[in-house]
Design goal:
about 220 residues, alpha/beta, TIM Barrel, eight-stranded parallel β-sheet, about 45% helix, binds pyridoxal-5'-phosphate, PLP-binding_barrel
Length: about 220
Amino acid sequence: MSLDDITRRLRAAEIRAGRAPGSVTLIAVSKVQPDDRVRAVLDQGHRVFGENRVQEAAGKWPGFRDSHGPVDLHLLGPLQSNKARQAMELFQAIHSLDRPKLAQALARLAQELGQCPDLFVQVNTGEEPQKAGVAPSGADEFVSQCRALDLPVKGLMCIPPADEQPSLHFALLAKIAARNGLPALSMGMSGDFEEAVMQGATHVRVGSAIFGARQTG
Ligand SMILES: *Cc1c(COP(=O)(O)O)cnc(C)c1O
C-alpha cells in the first residue's frame, strides 16, 4: 500500500457513495512510524496527519513543519486535561473530546488563547468498558453541554469494536450526528475506510495502509 493507492481507493469510494470527489479528508495516521516514512509522505505533498499522543507529536511535528511548512495535525488519542494547552497549540483538530472536565478545560483555554481546534466528540458506539468515548445514550446531552460552553464541536468520532461489523457502528454514529445537526464524521481506518465513506464519513483515519505496519502502538 501507499499514499497513492489509498488516495485512489478513497476517490473511488467517494464516487460509489455519490459524494463529491475530494470531499473526504484523508488523515494519515503517523503515530509510532519512523521519521523517514513520515517524511516520504510529506515529500509526496500530503499535509493532513493524525497522532495519538501529545508528547510524541510535540517531539516530531515542529521539525517537520520547519522543513515542510504548515501541516494540519489531528489528535486522535485520549487527551488528559493537563495536556490540553499543549494540544491546543499543536493540533488543528481534536477527535477525542469525551468528558465534561476536558470540555471545561478546553473552553477555558479557548477563551484565553482566542482560538480552538475543531472538536469531535468521541462516542463509544460499542459501549466497550476499556474504550474512551461517551455512551451513545449520553451523546446528545454531552454535545449540548459542549455547545453551551461555546466549543466548536464539528462532529463525532468512533472506533468500532474489533470483532464486530463496523458498518453498524458507522450508521449509529451518523444517526447521532444527524439528530444533533453535526456535519462531520470521523470514522474508518485502514481496514474499513471505504465502508465508512459509504456511511457518510467526512474524515477517515488511515495509518498502516499508508505507512506500513507499526512496530508498537
Ligand atoms: C491508530 C489509529 C488509527 C489508524 O489505524 P490503522 O488501522 O493503522 O489505519 C485510526 N484511528 C485511531 C483513533 C487510531 O488510534
